[in-house]
Amino acid sequence: MKVDGRDMRPIWLGPDGQSIKVIDQRPLPHELVVADLRSVADVIMAIREMMVRGAPLIGVAGAWGVYMAVLRIGADEAGEDALIGECTRLKMARPTAVNLMWAVDAALVDALAAKGFDARLAAARAAAEKITEMEVDNCRRIGEHGVALVREIAEAKDRGKVNILTHCNAGWLACVEYGTATAPIYMAHETGIPVHVW
Questions:
Q1: Hey, is 110 helix, strand or coil?
Q2: 3-state secondary structure of 197
Q3: How far apart (Å, rounded) are the C-alpha atoms in residues 145 and 37?
């Protein structure tokens, strides 16, 4: 998504590789605040306090939390138990969040399969990046399928404006890119279909 003319996602790895950057959704739309998450405790707080919200984004944050856990714990034998413990804490940040449970477990499996600190950190990072891009791709595909329905409605209205109502946290902030319910709207706009959104 473009923010002040530049591409931005609601979550990304800091340039130093030592922190996760997130858009704090709480002060929006009045202020754009980027928070710096430097520990598993910070990621847990971001999820609990609704700094990040939306099922896909919460899952992605959890996957990056696994990366933060590996970064802070290391990869010795005792570190495996500590890593599993930190992942349990991450999942308890929002115990009903299915995406969080799945993403943390997936990133943990990949991290534990790697031996040695560098390999484990690389595996945790690759897992978080893969989960992030998977969520982006899921939303893109929702948009591709959904835009066909919007196009059908526009054609039935003789290319008239299509009115769309959406009322849930389903945009790019909640989903990393595109959004779920909003993806067909963005794609309709991009392809020249006139839309009005309530």
A1: helix
A2: strand
A3: 35
Region for 146 from its dihedrals, namely left if φ exceeds 0, alpha if ψ lies in -120 to 50, beta otherwise:
alpha
> Tokens representing 197?
């959104």
Query: Mean per-residue pLDDT for 110-134?
Result: 96
Residues 51-77 have pLDDT tens digits of 999 999 999 999 999 999 999 997 665
DSSP conformation letters of 23-47: E-STTTTT---EEEE-SHHHHHHHH
What is the Cα–Cα distance from 104 to 23, expressed in whole angstroms?
20
| pTM, 2 dp | 0.91
3-state SS assignment for residue 196? strand
Closest listed residue to residue 94, CA positions, set 142, 57, 139: 57
| Distance (Å, whole) CA 196 – CA 78 | 56
